[in-house]
Design goal:
The structure holds 2 protein chains of 2 kinds. By secondary structure, chain A is mainly alpha-helical. Chain A has a domain of 147 residues. Chain A is 92% helix and 0% strand. In chain A, helix 1 runs antiparallel to helix 2 and helix 2 runs antiparallel to helix 4. Chain B has 2 domains: 272 residues, Rossmann fold (3-Layer(aba) Sandwich), CATH 3.40.50; 152 residues, Galactose-binding domain-like (Jelly Rolls, Sandwich). Helices cover 26% and strands 26% of the residues of chain B. In chain B, the strands form 3 sheets. In chain B, strands 3-2-1-4-5-7-6 form a 7-stranded mixed sheet, sandwiched between helices. In chain B, strands 8-11-16-13-14 form a 5-stranded antiparallel sheet, with no helix packed on it. Chain B has a 5-stranded antiparallel sheet with strand order 9-10-17-12-15. Chain B is globular and about 70 Å long. The termini of chain B are far apart. Classes of the chains: A mainly alpha, B alpha+beta. At the A-B interface, helix 4 of A face strand 17 of B.
Chain lengths: 275, 450
């Protein structure tokens, strides 16, 4: 029974190893594609398998193979008897095997322990790394989001500006078109006004010429009138002076004649007295 | 209250007395005796002049103290030698222009004449302008230059101590206002003036005047500036008078003034004005001592040989003519109608210069009519402002009929008032044209000329 159980276990192990080998390729492929996250699980599985092997070695490191016979009947019994009787005689050469098995079992146990620690450390490192990476990724993602949002804002702003610029450009172009049209019209009007101005200037010049000559004529006329008035005033004043002078001369002559008459009268009276 | 030695002019803020009187009393007024209109002897404005005129001997030597513009130029009609002295050189010049024989600028307390030079030393409205501190010096000079038998005649502004404040009682502002009106810094009562003269002259007589008769302007001045009390409705009436009405009022007042003098009526003390006569010898009559007004009226003698009528005393310019003005030349403004009466033998032509200052004469010509002895000579429209010579030919038929007496009548169809507003420069005369150089030519002269 015991041997049968062992044999079943060996069979199961071989089948599972075969399955494991078959799926190992896909696992490794998967591990490659999943950036190492599947590698941890394969390591764990390997360690699990190793631990299972260790349970086998731990259980069977000091056991001998079971006594079996391929014969039947009496022969089989005789053989089994003999073998059973001779089992202690084989102890001397199985001892070393037992020591070796134990050493292998201990070494593997140590290796499993170390590997487990390594795996745990690795897992911790991976977790730490993945956490850092996640944080970094989150930071990067937030930065990226911020960048994206700012970029979006910038873009929207830029778009708005662009839209405005486009509007302005369109307006400017409209205005330019209007201005061009207006300028064209203004130029025409200016040319017309210029021609009108030239005509008016000529007319004004002509008018000024005639006005100036008329003003000069009026001024001359007024001046001559004033001069005539002044001459008239002078004439009247001089006439008055002349009349006063002639009056004075007449009065003087009258006085002289009166004096002459008195003198003559005195002389006559003197002559009369002398006579 | 005040420093007795301080000059009242100084206290009243008058620093240049000559300039003060120049601005107050110099004018272009024509006072030349040759232009005097006989009718003006009744004008109250000439009442004081006529008192001097009637008290001065013809042909005498007269000194006019403070002659101003020459208010006594009329004395030249009596053939006097007329000398004038004044503080202001402009006044001296104006007096000379108005016919004074000799004028000079001097202080009245230092007369530049030898002793006993003048028969008469006269003054009108001067003694009241002499400060108390100078009065005796002036009277001393008057006494010195007056001949022993000379007479001094003065028209003097007075005050009434009972009615008016003395100078010492006035505060600086009142004094400034009082002196600013006329420059009176030496007003005394009538008897005070008399007593002062008695210190220099043995014989002094004075008569208060102007108690009753004042010109219309003087009534208003005494009321408005000196605060004398008159009936308010009477003052309103005077303010509303036109130029001609004021003239009539002044003529009436002057007539009464003259009659009071002629009748030798003594008026009560008025505190306004006194006429004073003084001499070292006994005085003659106070009024009309040498009255002889013949030279004021027209006479044939003065017409002989003189062909210009403007300054001829033989010619009568009626009251349609205003007093002559210096435009120049000297000319008479006419109202709407005026007449000239004269005598001439064998008159053939009348010529004259005329002008108008009507502002709108170009737009509305002035119609002028010339009529000689009720016969129209000519009519024309004046349409410019300058001087115009007009020759009027006299028909022989008219000369034969008139026997040498002529009356030239000039009519204008409208007049204007130069400055009718009621202010210092008011001139509300209704004037039309100004006329001068009015000459007559007789037929003989014309024939000789031809």
């Amino acid at each position: 029974m015991d041997v049968e159980t062992i044999l079943n276990q060996i069979r199961e192990r071989v089948v599972s190893e075969e399955n494991a080998r078959i799926t190992g390729t896909s696992v490794s492929t998967k591990a490659l594609s999943s950036n190492g996250s599947a590698a941890g699980s394969s390591q764990d599985e390997a360690l699990a398998r190793l631990s299972e092997q260790l349970t086998v070695t731990g259980r069977a490191w000091n056991r001998l193979p079971p006594i079996v016979s391929n014969r039947r009947g009496t022969l089989a019994r005789i053989e089994l008897w003999i073998k059973n009787t001779c089992r202690p005689l084989t102890r001397w050469f199985t001892w070393e095997q037992v020591n070796f098995n134990r050493a292998v079992h201990d070494a593997l146990s140590d290796a499993v322990r170390i590997l487990t620690a390594e795996v745990q450390e690795l897992a911790a490192l991976r977790a730490q790394l993945s956490g850092e990476m996640r944080r970094e990724v989150l930071t990067l993602r937030s930065d990226l989001d911020r960048l994206n949002s700012s970029h979006a804002e910038y873009r929207s702003d830029l778009e708005a500006r662009l839209e405005k610029t486009n509007d302005a450009l369109s307006r400017i172009s409209n205005m330019l078109a209007d201005l061009t049209e207006e300028s064209r019209g203004g130029s025409a009007q200016l040319a017309q006004q210029h021609s009108q101005l030239a005509e008016q200037t000529n007319a004004l010049r002509e008018e000024q010429r005639t006005g100036a000559s008329q003003q000069a004529a009026e001024f001359n006329q007024r001046l001559s009138e004033l001069a005539a008035e002044l001459k008239e005033e002078q004439r009247v004043c001089f006439r008055q002076l002349s009349l006063e002078a002639s009056e004075a001369a007449i009065l003087e002559d009258r006085g002289r004649r009166a004096l002459d008459a008195r003198l003559e009268k005195l002389e006559k009276s003197l002559q009369t007295r002398k006579g | 209250m005040s420093d007795p030695d301080e000059n009242l002019y100084t206290r009243a803020g008058v620093s240049d007395i000559g300039d003060f009187y120049r601005t107050k009393f110099v004018s272009d007024e024509v006072l030349d005796a040759r232009y005097f209109k006989a009718l003006d002897r009744f004008d109250i404005r000439f009442a004081r002049t006529m008192w001097i005129y009637d008290n001065v001997r013809a042909g005498s030597n007269v000194l006019d103290l403070g002659c101003g513009a020459g208010m006594l130029a009329l004395l030249k009609r009596k053939g006097v030698t007329l000398t004038g002295v004044d503080l202001s050189p402009e006044c001296s010049l104006a007096a000379r222009r108005n016919g004074y024989d000799f004028t000079m600028t001097t202080k009245l307390s230092h007369l530049p004449f030898p002793d006993q030079t003048f028969d008469y030393v006269v003054s009108l409205d001067v003694i009241g302008h002499i400060g108390f501190e100078e009065k005796d010096a002036v009277l001393s000079e008057v006494s010195r230059v007056l001949r022993a038998d000379g007479v001094t005649l003065h028209g003097i502004e007075c005050t009434d101590h009972a009615a008016r404040k003395n100078y010492d009682e006035m505060n600086p502002e009142d004094l400034r206002k009082f002196v600013e009106i006329d420059g009176h810094v030496g007003l005394e009562e009538e008897q005070e003036h008399g007593k002062r003269f008695l210190r220099f002259f043995k014989h002094v007589a004075w008569e208060p005047r102007y108690a009753l008769c004042l010109s219309s302007d003087e009534f208003l001045k005494q009321a408005d500036k000196y605060g004398l009390s008159f009936e308010e409705d009477f003052l309103d009436y005077l303010r509303g008078l036109s130029f001609k009405e004021r003239r009539a009022f002044d003529m009436a007042m002057g007539y009464v003034f003259g009659k009071i003098s002629d009748l030798d009526v003594t008026l009560p003390k008025s505190g306004l004005y006194v006429l004073l006569k003084a001499s070292k010898i006994p005085l003659g009559p106070f009024y009309n001592e040498h009255r002889d007004r013949r030279a004021l009226y027209s006479g044939e003698e003065s017409l002989k040989e003189l062909t210009c009528l403007d300054r001829n005393s033989g010619v009568t310019f009626d009251d349609g003519w205003y007093e002559p003005n210096l435009l120049p030349p000297i000319a008479r403004w006419m109202s709407r109608e005026a007449r000239v009466r004269f005598q001439a033998n064998d008159l053939s032509e009348i010529s004259l210069d005329l002008t108008t200052h009507l502002p709108d004469v170009r737009e509305r010509p002035l119609l002028l009519e010339f009529i000689l002895n009720d016969e129209p000579l000519t009519t024309f429209q004046l349409c410019r402002n300058g001087w115009l010579r007009v020759n009027l030919f006299v028909p022989e038929s008219l000369v034969w009929r008139t026997k040498g007496n002529f009356e030239l009548q000039i009519r204008a169809n409208r007049t204007w008032q130069p400055r009718p507003a009621n202010d210092e420069t008011r001139d509300d005369r209704e004037i039309s044209i100004a006329v001068c150089n009015l000459e007559i030519t007789n037929g003989r002269e014309n024939r000789e000329r031809n």
